[in-house]
Amino acid sequence: MGKERRLSNILKSDGKAFIVAMDHGTFSAPAGLENMGEIIELIKEGGADGVLLNPGAAKKYADQMIGLGLIMRTDLPPTLMSKDAHESRKTFGVEQALSLAADAVIVNGGTGTGVEEITLDAIAATVNECEPWNMPVIGEMVPGGFDSPKELKNVTNLAANARIASEIGVDMIKMPYCEGFADVVKHSFVPILVLGGAKTDNDVDFVCSIKDAIDAGASGVAIGRNVWGHENPKLMAKALAEVIHGNASKMDIEKILR
């Protein structure tokens, strides 16, 4: 299968993607993901384009995922029991992604002392491994690495991370959003998906922040807790789908979520 065909299962005809990240179970046992099959059905009904899963979940819920794009994570983070946080270690390969009919793989990245020595090598190795198989690679680029402070996630650092990942050869980037994001997009060769971050309390403000990201040039989102952790995942998915693919206004968002 060609790379463009796989990417078309993630990025729709408008060049945008709404991905729900559900890969949190290798860190802990997250409340809200006890019944992933049910959540997958709800977010599919709400308008999600694809899901981000670990290999075990992709295998378990293959039937529920018919009609959705699949991004498979290739690395493992430190668990909640880890005394010393460390960067994710690449553990899964392209063969596993192919066996699960994945449309892309994702690997954690980021820059900074003690971070890039591991993560940039992992991204480059993944690109080299996947290229002969036409398997798209998504670099998850977070300045400072796993769980870094907010002040590191500024325009300068995000733009550098986007450019570095582009130069290494990824096909897409997942990264945090910040004010001035249009300047980040200018430095990327490839589409950027904005990650969702920590669970928020104000639904309208959160969805409006995603609208700001799309307006700034982001090609979509990969959001987890703010979708599957919502009291009504289908409704939140619908609001996000309308913003990403339907150019919904703040008034539209308020009508959907009230």
Mean pLDDT: 91
Give the low-pLDDT segments. Answer: none
Walk across the major sheet and give the strand order. Answer: 1-2-3-6-7-8-9-10
Question: Roughly what fraction of the amino acids lie in strands?
Answer: 15-25%
The CATH homologous superfamily name equals Aldolase class I
Count of structural domains = 1
Question: How is this structure best described in words?
Answer:
- Helix 6 links the parallel strand 7 and strand 8.
- The chain is globular and about 45 Å long.
- The strands form two sheets. The chain has an eight-stranded parallel barrel, surrounded by five helices. Strands 4-5 form a two-stranded antiparallel sheet.
- The chain has helices at residues 3-8, 36-46, 55-60, 94-99, 116-130, 155-168, 181-185, 203-215, 225-228, 233-246, 250-257, and strands at residues 17-21, 50-53, 69-73, 75-76, 89-90, 104-109, 137-141, 172-175, 192-195, 220-223.
- The chain is an alpha/beta fold and 258 residues long.
List the helices and strands and how they pair.
Blueprint lengths: L2 H6 L8 E5 L14 H11 L3 E4 L1 H6 L8 E5 L1 E2 L12 E2 L3 H6 L4 E6 L6 H15 L6 E5 L13 H14 L3 E4 L5 H5 L6 E4 L7 H13 L4 E4 L1 H4 L4 H14 L3 H8 L1
Parallel strand pairs: 1-2, 1-10, 2-3, 3-6, 6-7, 7-8, 8-9, 9-10
Antiparallel strand pairs: 4-5
Quick structural summary:
The protein has helices at 3-8, 36-46, 55-60, 94-99, 116-130, 155-168, 181-185, 203-215, 225-228, 233-246, 250-257; strands at 17-21, 50-53, 69-73, 75-76, 89-90, 104-109, 137-141, 172-175, 192-195, 220-223. The chain is α/β, with parallel strands linked by helices. It has a single domain, classed as Aldolase class I (TIM Barrel, Alpha-Beta Barrel), CATH 3.20.20.70.
